[in-house]
Design goal:
Strand order of the largest sheet: 1-6-2-3-4-5
CATH architecture of the largest domain: 2-Layer Sandwich
CATH class of the largest domain: Alpha Beta
Radius of gyration: 18 Å
Largest sheet: 6 strands, antiparallel
Oligomer: single chain
Structural class: alpha+beta
Number of domains: 2
Number of helices: 7
Number of strands: 12
Distance between the termini: 26 Å
Length: about 240
């Protein structure tokens, strides 16, 4: 039997590291109980497929007060009354295996949320290295940063951070945090995914500059880096393969 590639498995492997546990948004299998628990605990939560990629099927649920909840899928929003109606509505929209995750209030560029793709690679017998980083900015009205799905764009990371809503911390400091946590995460994940030589991390930054691991990809799309004007990172990534 092969190793599990589910998002929940990766979360559990990463969470076993005391150095990483504070960077991981709480995540559980989706159920009525876990939805109610997360809605009580967090201002917003994300429901997403346990497997798959590209932002498909991602739904955000935000508490709006007075026992009402806004559900957003793609650019469409709907407001529902009560947890019970919200749960039944979500169940109709979902496939079989979903998980629920604390929603992170991502930093924004021109009002649009962005996250960071961090490429971590190793050659046989060598240490892990960060070979590429870029910002993925969501398209207008979208919560997901997947470029194809939301019509968003990529930006050099320094550019995105400097023009973002992040306050009180320098771009260099945030990038150093991203780099350090991505390398720790790769070292942790390879204890389970032992033959893996590349990870593509989707990492979030909130407006205070705190860094979060949103997802780890085992087969990351490197063509994102071709969308940058400077192709040096793309060339470095290819050289490592």
């Amino acid at each position: 039997m092969g190793v599990s590639e589910s998002k929940l498995t990766k979360y559990y492997v990463l969470r076993a590291s005391s150095a990483l546990v504070g960077t991981l948004p709480s995540t559980k299998p989706f159920s009525r109980k876990s939805l109610y628990e997360f809605l009580d605990r967090y201002k917003k939560v994300i429901a997403k497929p346990a497997a798959g990629s590209g932002g498909a099927g991602v739904i955000m649920i935000s508490g709006k007060g007075n026992d009402s909840y806004q559900v957003q899928s793609g650019a469409k929003k709907r407001t529902l009354r009560g947890k019970k109606d919200t749960y039944h509505y979500l169940r109709k929209k979902m496939g079989a295996r979903y998980l629920i995750q604390r929603g992170i209030s991502l930093a924004r560029v021109n009002g649009r949320p962005f996250d960071v793709r961090v490429m971590v690679q190793r050659r046989r017998g060598s240490q892990w290295a960060v070979t590429g980083m870029l910002a993925k900015v969501a398209g207008k009205g979208y919560i997901i940063t997947n470029i194809k799905r939301s019509g968003g764009r990529v930006l050099p990371l320094h550019t995105a951070i400097r023009s973002s809503s992040i306050r009180g911390v320098s771009a260099d400091t945030v990038i150093a945090r991203l780099r350090r946590i991505a390398l720790l995460a790769a070292s942790r994940l390879v204890t389970y995914y032992t033959s893996q030589n590349v990870f593509g991390f989707d990492m979030g930054i909130d407006s205070s500059g705190k860094v979060w691991i949103i997802e780890a990809n085992l087969r990351p799309d490197i063509t994102l880096f071709l969308k940058l004007h400077d192709k040096q990172m793309y060339r470095t990534i290819v050289k490592y393969r």
